[in-house]
Amino acid sequence: MTDPLGQSQVLPYLVGLSKQGYQFTLISFEKKERIEKGRTGIEKICQESSIEWCPLLYTKTPPVLSTLKDLRALKRKITSLQSVARFDLVHCRSYITALAGEWMKKKWGTKFVFDMRGFWADERVDGKIWNLKNPLFKMVFNFFKKKEKDFLSHADHIISLTHNAKQVIHSWKEVSNQPVPIQVIPCCVDLALFDPATIKNASIDQLKAELGIPSEVEVISYIGSIGTWYMLPEMLDFFKQWLSKKPESVLLFVTNDNPDHILMAAGKAGITAASIRIKPATRTEVPLFIAACDYSLFFIKPVFSKKASSPTKQGEIMAMGKPVICNSNVGDTDYVVKEYHSGVLVNDFSNTDYNKAIEEVTGNDHFNAVTIREGARQFFSLEEGVRRYAEVYHTVLNEG
Fold it and tell me: What's this model's pTM, rounded to 2 decimal places?
C-alpha cells in the first residue's frame, strides 16, 4: 500500500466500499524502505475507514523461494485472523494471493473473488522476467498457467481490467463452467483529485518557470515509471520526429526513475538535454504536471499479456482533459481513444506512422478538454469502479 499503485488502485476502492458498509481486513506485502517512510499515511487512511491493515514484509530474493516464504507468512496470518473472526469473502489481487484465496475456499468455504489484474504468468515471460529456457522458470510458468485455469474455474467471481481479456478468457475451453462470471473494472481514476478545475493558471505558470519551459512552448508529458513495458526508445524516436516539425517543444518526464537513464537514451536518439525535462512528483502533484502539458505520450509493448492491461495513466490524463498519444493493441486502449475522441493511435513503430500521428494530432481541432474528461468519467471513474465491486460482492455474498 506504500507503493503508488496501492494508493491509486487499491485503497480508494476499499475506502469507497467501506462507506457502503463492507468491513475489510487488508493484508499487504510492503518493501522495508517504503513502509518505514509511508506507514503513518496509510495507517491514517485505513483508520478513517475502519480498515484493519496488516502489513507484512515483502522479500524479493532468492527468486521463487522468497515467494514461497511470503505465501507461508500470508497463510499463517490468515489462520490467526480466522481464529478471531471468520471471513465471508476473500478478494485476491493477482495470482500469488489467489493461491491463498483458493486455499481459504477449500478449507473454510470462503467466497473467493479472483481480481486477476492481467495474465500474470504470460507477463513474466513477455517482460523477460522469466526465461523459459531456464528449467526452474519453465516449471513455475507451467504451474501458474495451470493454476490460472483453476482460479478461473473455482472463483465465485472474476475481475478483469479489460473487455479484451474477458473475451480471451471466455474462449478458453480448459476453463470449466464457461462462461465464467467476469466483471470488467479498469484501472479507475479519482476524478476529484484529477480535476483541471482545481488547478490555477498561476500554478501552471510557476511550474513551467521552475522547469525552465517558456509559456508558448508545446509540452508533451510522460507520466510514471519507465519499467518493463514502456518503450522508451520508441517514444524518443517519436519525439524526435515531433521536434523536426516543432523544434522548440519539450518532452517532460514526470517520474521517480533515474534521470541519467532517460538522458542517455535521449542522447542515443539524437535528442539534446535541452529538449528534455525530468521531475519526480507525488501522486497529489501529478494533476498539476498533466495540466502543464499539451499532450501526453505512452507506448506499451503490444504483446499477448497486454490484452489484459489497463494503463492507470490513461484515465488520469483523460480526467485532466488532455489528449493521449499511444500505441494500439494494448487492452481496451484502442476503443477508449476512438470512442471518446481522446487522442491518436500509433499502429506501427516507424517514422512513417509517427509522422502520420503527428499530423493528425497537431492538425486536429476536434480535441475538446470537456469531452475528453467526460470520457474519463464514463469509462474510468472511481465511483463506477466502486459500484461494480459492490455489485460483485452483493452477488457473491447472496448466492446460495
Answer: 0.90
